[in-house]
Amino acid sequence: MRDLRRQALESKKTVSRKAQSREASRATSHTNSAHNSRPSSRNASRHPSDDEDGESEGTAYSTPSLDEYFPSANDEETTASSESWQADLEDVVRDFNDRKRSSVLSREDALTAYVRILTSHYVEDALPDFNELLASFAKSIKSESSEKETVLALKAVSLTVLTFLDESIYDQMVSVLRRTITDSPSMPIKAAAIHCLGACTFFGGAGEDEILEQMNFLLEIVSSDGHYVNAGDDADVVTAALEEWGFLATEVEDLEHESEDAIEAFAEQLESSEASVQIAAGENIALLYEKSYTPLEEGESIDDGNDEGNNEFSDGEGASSLLLSDDEDAGGGGGVDNRPPLIKRYNPYHNTPRILRQVDALANVSGRHINKKSKRSLHANFSSILTTIANPRRGPQYSRAIDNETSRQYGTRKTVKIHQDASMKLDRWWKWLRLAALRRLLRWGFVTHYFEGSRGVLECLPVMVRPVMKKKVKGMDGGGSSSSSGGGGGKKGGRRKGVEMF
C-alpha cells in the first residue's frame, strides 16, 4: 500500500487510440461471453489495491465489462480544454430530454457527454429542467433499450446526486434502482445499479432508517452470493454490494445491532479464492471493529470494568495503552488537537479469535496457487486490517516505529498526496472507504471537484492540509510569518514553515 492510491489522484496519463480500441474490444468480448462463463462471487473484482492502482485508471466502476461505456483520460483532456462546457452541458440536457426525436445511439452519445462533463467539472449552478432530466434518466434505466444506455444513465444519476445534493433524488430513484437490481437480466446493469443506489442513498436525502434498509438489502446480496437478486455467483454484483455496504456504513453512527450478522457474512467472503473480494470484505470488518470504539464523552469517566478485555488482542502491550488518546495511540503527532481517548462500547463480534486467525492467514498467505500481485495485495492490506481488529484504536497502515523527533509511535501513515503539495491523512477506515467510493464516482475528476469546492466531496472527506513553504531571500536570515510554529532557517531554502488548511 506504499503508493497510497497516488496513481488515481495524481496521474494525468493518456492512452493511445490504438490502446483504447484494444481495451474496448476486450471489454466487448467479456460482455458477450458473460452469460456463458460468469465468474463466481468468490472471484470478484473490486477497486484495486495500492499495488494495482495504476491499472485501473480507465475504469468507472470496478466492473471490467463497463470500461467501454465511460470516457477515457483522453476524452477528459478534450473536455477540460473546452471553454464552453457550460453551454455544452445545457445542449446535452436539452437533447437528452427530447426523447421523441432521439434514438438509442443519440441518447448514448448524450449520456456519454453528460458523464464526461460532470466528471471533469464541478457544476455549481442548478441545471435547467432538472426534474425532467431525472425523469429521463429513470426512463432510460427502466426501458433498458441497450445495456450501454442503461449503465450510462445509472452513472449519470450517481454524478448528478453527488454534484447537486438534491434531497429528493433518493425518493425518486430508490424504487427504480431496487427493481433494476432485482429484475434486470444484465449483470453489468445490476452492478451499476447497486453503485447508483449507494450514491443516491448517501447523497440523495435518505435518513438513517433508509440507509439501514439499503444496507440490509446489500447484505442479503452478499450473504446469498448474489442469488437474492437473481445474480447467483456473479462476481461484479457481489463486489458492488460489498463496496456500497461499507460506504453507507460510514454514515451510520451506531452499528452495534448490525455488527454481528454483518461480520459473519463478511467472514464467509474471506474464504474467497480471489484477493479482490477478500480485501473488500476485510475492509468492512475493520470498519465495524473501528466503530465499536467511540471517544470519551465530556463528563464521562473511564470505567475499568467497561473496558475489560478490550486489549485482549493488542499485541501484548498491556492495559496501559487503554488510556492513550486516539491521537497518541494512532501516532497523531504531539497531541495537537487533544482528542479524547477512544473507549470500547460493545463487542462487534462474538468470536474475534476466529476473525483474527482468518485475517492473519491472509496477511501471511503463500503458495504457488496465488499470483505475485494478489499475494502482495493480500499481505499489505490484511496486515493493516489485522492491526485494526487486534486494536481498533489503530487505523490503516499503523506503524509502531518510534519517531525520533517526538519519541512517539508514527501511528497511521496512510496519506493521500495531491499535486505534490497537499495531503490528506487517512487515519481511520471510514475516511478510506469514503475516498474509495468517491474514486469510483469521479475517477480523474476527483482532484478537480475537491479543489473547486464540490460540497458533496468536501462534506464527505476530512480537510486537506498543504505545507506553507518559506522562500529563502538573499540577505535575509530566514524570518517569516509570525504564525510559524517552527522550521526556521536550515541549510536549504524552501523549508516547511507550517501548514495551510483548505
Task: Quickly describe the structure.
The chain is mainly alpha-helical. It has a domain at 464-501. It has helices at 6-10, 17-32, 73-80, 85-97, 104-120, 130-143, 147-164, 169-183, 187-203, 208-223, 235-249, 256-269, 275-291, 326-329, 352-363, 372-390, 429-442, 446-451, 455-460; strands at residues 293-295, 342-344, 398-403, 408-412, 415-418, 422-425, 465-470, 495-501.
Polypeptide structure, described:
The structure is a single chain. With 502 residues, the chain is mainly α. It has a domain at 464-501. Helix content is 49%, strand content 8%. The chain has 19 helices and eight strands. It has helices at residues 6-10, 17-32, 73-80, 85-97, 104-120, 130-143, 147-164, 169-183, 187-203, 208-223, 235-249, 256-269, 275-291, 326-329, 352-363, 372-390, 429-442, 446-451, 455-460, and strands at 293-295, 342-344, 398-403, 408-412, 415-418, 422-425, 465-470, 495-501. Helix 3 (73-80) packs across helix 5 (104-120). The longest helix has 19 residues, at 372-390. The model is unreliable at 1-81, 307-336 and 468-502 (pLDDT under 50).
Furnish the topology, listing elements before pairings:
Layout: H1 6-10, H2 17-32, H3 73-80, H4 85-97, H5 104-120, H6 130-143, H7 147-164, H8 169-183, H9 187-203, H10 208-223, H11 235-249, H12 256-269, H13 275-291, E1 293-295, H14 326-329, E2 342-344, H15 352-363, H16 372-390, E3 398-403, E4 408-412, E5 415-418, E6 422-425, H17 429-442, H18 446-451, H19 455-460, E7 465-470, E8 495-501
Antiparallel strand pairs: 1-2, 3-4, 5-6, 7-8
Helix pairs in contact: 3-5, 4-5, 5-7, 6-7, 6-8, 7-9, 8-9, 9-10, 9-11, 10-11, 11-13, 11-17, 12-13, 13-16, 15-16
